[in-house]
Write a structure and sequence with these properties.
Layout (H helix, E strand, L loop, with lengths): L2 H18 L23 H6 L26 H11 L12 E2 L5 E2 L6 H13 L25 H11 L9 H4 L4 E2 L5 E5 L4 E5 L2 E3 L4 H4 L3 E3 L9 E4 L4
Helix pairs in contact: 4-5
Amino acid sequence: MSPRVVALGLLLVAVALTACGGASDAARVRAWNVAAPYLPPPDPAALAQRAPAATPAPARPADPQTTASSTGAPSDAQVAADLREAFGGHAGTDVDRAAIDADGLAIIPTTAPRRLVALMQAANDVARKPYVYGGGHGRNPGEIWTDSAYDCSGSVSYALAAAGYLDGPLVSGALATWGDPGPGRWVTIYANGGHAFMVVAGLRFDTSGRQITGTRWQSADARSYAGFSVRHPPGL
């Protein structure tokens, strides 16, 4: 092989190495230094399938009664309108009402004071437990009165104790004279010598309905209130 051919071959190899980045740092391909987690770019094909953005509707003239303040906070009129939409037109009343979830437990209103939250959480603890006469009253003096089943006054007493109102369970007749007379702002107890229940944030907590719905939480208007003493916890 002639020297001219050898020289030409070496020149071609050098050019090839330079083109692949093998002979020059300036031409070397470097990986992107991307901090984890690395999210790949969107698929161009998927982007092409997206519908074009809708043309925005022309803005309506601002209502001076509902326009937000300069601080960005909604006006009183706007808040009232939002509450009417969320609570079916009963703004100012239903915001304090509890609801029953799919598990038969009470959804505590966001406006509930601290003692009411404790009372309702305890009522939820026993809402689905079975009914047993004498349940929740303790079988021996000094025994802790949490139980696997509760009667009417035992379940009411358990909730009241969790809110700091009782040191132990009361029977129905004792609940008929306990607390302050008349209905309460949040909690009203209905009791006589044979039965006790209470209405809490618009819901009835009553063991007599548990065998039908599986929970002590019931609609407040689903029974008669005649023949019961009406009392409430002080402050609630």
